[in-house]
TrEMBL record:
Acyl-CoA dehydrogenase C-terminal domain mapped to chain residues: 240-371
InterPro entries: Acyl-CoA_dehydrogenase, Acyl-CoA_DH_C, Acyl-CoA_Oxase/DH_mid-dom_sf, AcylCo_DH-like_C, AcylCoA_DH/ox_N, AcylCoA_DH/ox_N_sf, AcylCoA_DH/oxidase_NM_dom_sf
GO cellular component, one term: cytoplasm
Coiled coil: none
Source species: Kitasatospora sp. CMC57
Name of this chain's protein: Acyl-CoA dehydrogenase family protein
Family affiliation: Belongs to the HpaH/HsaA monooxygenase family.
UniProt keyword annotation of Lipid metabolism present: no
Domain Acyl-CoA dehydrogenase/oxidase N-terminal, residue spans: 24-91
């Protein structure tokens, strides 16, 4: 496959920005149908935004983390569901680049391949000749409805009776989809449950997780020299995932100000909501929280890019800080949406008003096990207090 010149960061962000009206046009449809609209997916693909973390030799861009975050934030400004799905597919492409090169040749044979992933080890792989038999059930399989490949987390049974976490690349056609995505938020992601039973997986498609996460070791020779694969998994994931609630908060801010000129405060003498001191306080508070969320996202992204450029190692504290940044930005984004939703009045509860969807989406994403603010703050505090981290996702 011919190597193409990657677009500049500003160009990729511009393309994402131009897609916002189209994404918003289909946001209600995506929520009602619990899946992404094909026109939205095709537009994102045509804009090249699925290639940001694809190896250059397969026509990808190998974009830096800040670019990825700014693009994802813009997509999420259109609709949180497309933002979250593209964020997941972007990190999934990066994960695929950790597998042996012959596996990558198989996965990226289609230049427009989409890849989903799940980080919860809800499967068990039992060694067999030439590979392993995989059985599992994975809720929250984001991207599976639109992907040709999926990277699942599982545990590999050892001869000593123990288990070790692994990543396993599986064609989506080998999995069974359970249509159970009946949720209050992020409905458009279609993050259904997937299952497999005694599925044989070749050894090359099984990747030990702990060396990947903690020692940044992988099995690709051709990607070994690329800066994109010299950064640890968790800090990369933290920045990209946290960009989604940031985009949601910006969307809430836009929705609020679009309605503000024609709104009054019912049962008061304020004929214009914009004249009320309470409104001034609310919009200022929300703007401050959005700025704080952006600060954490960009600081996390720039830390990864800087350390990759300089070839610096990562301390446990820096890895935990990345998780803290993700939790802090999610919290601030949710708080901003809460303030703007509260200021939007009773008319905002109608199903055709985007504010109620944004409120539900940001609440949903804040409950995600990896983004959950309290969990990430506790993790960072443990490390600051000299204790061992209580997770391998660092």
């Amino acid at each position: 496959m011919a190597i193409i010149e990657a677009p500049a960061a500003a160009e990729l962000v511009r393309r994402a920005t131009e897609l916002v009206p189209l994404i918003r046009k289909h946001a209600a449809w995506q929520e009602e149908n619990r899946t992404l609209h094909e026109e939205v997916l095709q537009a994102v693909t045509d804009a090249g935004l699925m290639k940001m973390r694809v190896p250059v030799r397969y026509g990808g861009y190998e974009s830096d983390v800040r670019t990825v975050c700014e693009v994802i934030s813009e997509l999420a400004r259109g609709d949180g569901s497309i933002g979250w799905t593209v964020s997941t597919m972007t990190i999934s492409s990066w994960l695929a680049g950790l597998f042996p090169d012959e596996v990558q040749d198989e996965i990226f044979a289609d230049p427009d391949v989409r890849i989903g992933s799940s980080v919860s080890p809800n499967g068990v792989a039992v060694p067999a000749e030439g590979g392993a038999g995989l059985t599992g059930r994975w809720p929250f399989s984001t991207g599976v409805l639109h992907s040709q490949w999926f990277i699942h987390s599982a545990v590999l049974a050892g001869a000593d009776g123990g288990f070790s976490p692994v990543l396993i690349a599986v064609p989506t056609s080998d999995m069974t989809v359970v249509d159970d995505w009946h949720t209050v938020g992020l409905r458009g992601t279609g993050s259904v449950t997937t299952t497999v039973q005694d599925l044989f997986v070749p050894e090359a498609r099984i990747l030990p997780m702990l060396p990947l996460v903690l020692q940044n070791q992988h099995r690709s020779e051709l990607n070994a020299g690329s800066p994109m694969w010299r950064a640890p998994f968790s800090p990369i994931t933290a920045a990209g995932a946290a960009a989604v609630p940031l985009g949601m908060a910006r969307a809430a801010q836009e929705v609020f100000f679009e309605r503000l000129p024609n709104r009054k405060i019912t049962y008061t003498t304020y004929e214009r909501q914009a004249e009320a001191p309470l409104t001034h306080r609310q919009v200022a508070e929300a703007a401050m929280k959005i700025d704080e969320a952006e600060f954490h996202v960009l600081r996390a992204a720039e830390r990864v890019d800087r350390k990759v450029r300089n070839g610096e190692d990562w301390s446990i504290e820096e890895r935990a800080l990345a998780r803290m940044e993700m939790g802090a930005s999610t919290r601030r984004a949710k708080e901003a949406v809460d303030v703007l939703n509260t200021a939007s009045g009773g008319s905002s509860i109608y199903s055709d008003h985007p504010m109620q969807r944004i409120e539900r989406d940001v609440q949903t994403i804040s409950l995600h096990g990896v983004l959950h603010p309290n969990t990430n703050l506790e993790l960072y505090g443990r490390v600051l207090c000299g204790l061992e981290p209580n997770t391998h996702l660092l």
